[in-house]
Amino acid sequence: MTETTGSDGSWLAVAALVVVAVAVAAVVPSLTSARPANEVPVGDVGANATNPTAESWTSVPSVEMALASAPSGLPEAGNVSVNHARVRAATNDSHVFVRVSWDDATADRNVSGPRAFADAVAVQFPENESARPPIAMGGTDNRVNVWYWTGDGRTEELLAGGAGTTTPFERSSVVSEAVHENGEWHVTFAREAAAAGNRTDLSAEQDIDLSVAVWNGSHHERAGRKAVSEWHYLAMGPGPQGPPYETILWTVAGLAILFATVVTIEGVRRTRGEAA
Fold first, then answer.
1. Is the dihedral of CA 134, 135, 140, 141 positive or negative?
2. What pLDDT sits at residue 238?
3. 66-118 pLDDT per residue, tens
4. HSE (CB half, 13 Å, CA atoms) of 16?
5. Could you say which DSSP state residue 80 is in?
6. Which of 177, 222, 195 is nearest to 77 (CA)?
7. CA of 146: how far to CAs of 74, 113, 271, in Å?
8. Quick count: other Cβ atoms within 10 Å of Cβ 119?
């Protein structure tokens, strides 16, 4: 009778420990890999990352951003055709890269006709990365940098402090490459991380806000008639996805397992003591 009770208690203790261990093993990885809302992870890529189809992009996480029409006084400004864009971001030793992809059955490059408009995409950053400006082209107290590509081959770097104030930099420091295949555009922007002179400095270890805008030329989208995202941010700082956060989680998980083990052993010991 005594051996049976002790044996049952031991098996229950082992079962409880296994359940705790399995639960922690299942939950902790999901916590460490979970991303806060509106975060764009930043991966590592090689020197050829300006090519949207470079192999190194396959290992960079992609974030799907919802797009909606931008507030505008233009006729049919709310009638836009692109609902989502997929964004990837990465760095290497010197540059920051942003790749934007979206569905578009036609590659609109020709703008020679009076009703012809090119496809286009833009990425927007605050000039002063310590504050979040108004998303509609910034404001007078915090302007925005805009990296702008159009299907006719132009790439521009712009500065804006509100609607109607967009001004191109005299010399652009942004380069881009674009590929249209299988009904999708893939456009990659690249710029040196360090910058000055009204340009967003991307070299500091801190999160940087960004938003995107997309124009579908065959849908007559241009200027303020565009699909835009909310503010997201490049996770370039020591945020919750960094090693300290993961270390804390794993430490808590280890302590939980240790605590469960101690409680289980004590329970077994008492069971055997009472049975004796």
1. positive
2. 79
3. 999 987 766 777 789 999 999 999 999 899 999 999 999 999 998 777 778 99
4. 18
5. -
6. 222
7. 21, 26, 70
8. 26
Kindly state the tokens that stand for 193.
Answer: 């991380």
What tokens were used for 210?
């960004």
CA distances from 255 to 12, 21, 50, 260 (A): 21, 11, 45, 8
Confidence (pTM)? 0.74
| Cα–Cα nearest to 92, from 155, 40, 48 | 48
The secondary element (H helix, E strand) that includes residue 64 is strand 63-66
CA angle 235, 237, 241 (to 5 degrees): 60
DSSP assignment of 189-218 equals: EEEES---SSS----SSS-EEEEEEEE-GG
Please count the other Cβ atoms lying within 10 Å of the Cβ belonging to residue 242: 12
Q: In angstroms, how far is the first alpha carbon of the chain from the final one?
A: 10
**Any residues with CB less than 8 A from the CB of 250 and at least 6 apart, and which?**
28, 32
Domain ranges of the chain: 2-34+242-275, 39-234
Q: What's the CA gap between 243 and 246, in Å, rounded?
A: 5
What does CATH list as the number for 39-234?
A: 2.60.40.1190
Q: Buried b / exposed e across 162-187, counting CB within 10 Å, b at 16+?
A: bbeebeeeeebebebbbebeeeebbb
What tokens were used for 9?
């208690």
Q: Label residue 163 by pLDDT band (50, 70, 90).
A: confident
Please give, one letter per residue, the 3-state secondary structure of 81-140: CCCEEEEEEEECCCEEEEEEEEECCCCCCCCCCCCCCCCEEEEEEECCCCCCCCCCCCCC
